[in-house]
Amino acid sequence: MNFLKQHFSTVLIAVAVIVTGLILGKSYLSKGKPDDTVSVLGLGEESFDSDLIVWRASFSRRSYELKDAYAQLNSDIRKVRSYLKSRGINEDEMVFEAADISKEWSRVYDDEGNLRQTIFDGYSLNQSVKVSSKKVNVVEQTSRQVSELIDAGIELNSEAPEYYYTKLAQLKLKMIEAATKDARQRAEKIAENGGGSLGKLKNADMGVFQITAENSSEDYEWGGSFNTSSRRKTANVTIRLKYEID
Question: What is the pLDDT of residues 151-167, one digit of tens each?
Fold first, then answer.
């Protein structure tokens, strides 16, 4: 016991040398041996139709008196609401947002380009309306035929519709399953061609979920792309699996 106390540091160093030797020896013996694993990439892909459409439009009125501008704008809102209902769009699918109010000014300059006077020209009120509906065909056609409102004295500025899919969670699960199956089949084929068999799954990583227009050349984005401009879309996801080879 006294010997151990007196030479403790020496014994500790000796043990460390032996353990290090064993580790290095094992590493040396395994050096150059092939890694008995296979890493494969599987793809899950599916095309689908959007089941939700969002369409935005706006119209405006100008008047020297704010009260008159509001009266004209409210009249236009009633006409737009009536028109959309006549096209088959329900009232609960429309949202008329609060009007934006701004003052209009004109500037008078002298011959040398110096500002001489600023004159108040009245108020401008801009009204936005948003339609969200699962009646994709109805809203899509309406967005293309708003020129009919010109006859009612309303200049409606129509934006391009946005298309969404409300069942993405279920679709994603289905695609992950397909990508996993695809990756496993690839791994099995590689193992078979190498004269072995597929062993345990060591690791699995899912790639980024991407949604692009169908048959398009859209670039994938690092954080995942989400196309909203096309009604018909294609979604895909990748799965990387790493298996042992027996």
Answer: 888 989 999 999 999 99
Total number of domains constituting the chain: 3
CA distance 62 to 126: 9
Q: How far is CA 64 from CA 78, 85, 120, 123, 201, in A?
A: 22, 32, 8, 6, 74
Q: Are 210 and 220 in contact (CB under 8 A)?
A: yes
- Distance of alpha carbon 96 from its chain centroid, rounded? 26
Q: Are residues 12 and 106 in the same domain?
A: no
Distance in angstroms (rounded) separating the CA atoms of residues 166 and 229 = 15
Question: CA-to-CA distance for 171 and 50, rounded, in angstroms?
Answer: 12
Cβ atoms of 151 and 212 within 8 Å: the answer is: no
Q: Tell me the C-alpha distance between 239 and 39, whole Å.
A: 10
pLDDT digit string, tens, across residues 16-38 = 434 444 444 444 444 444 568 88
Question: Mind listing the pLDDT tens digit for each residue in 213-235?
Answer: 998 887 777 777 889 999 999 99
Please state, in angstroms and rounded to a whole number, the distance separating the CA atoms of residues 183 and 190.
11
Among 164, 195, 218, the domain-final residue is 164
pTM given for the model: 0.76
Domain with 9 in it: 1-32
Rounded distance, CA 63 to CA 74, Å? 13
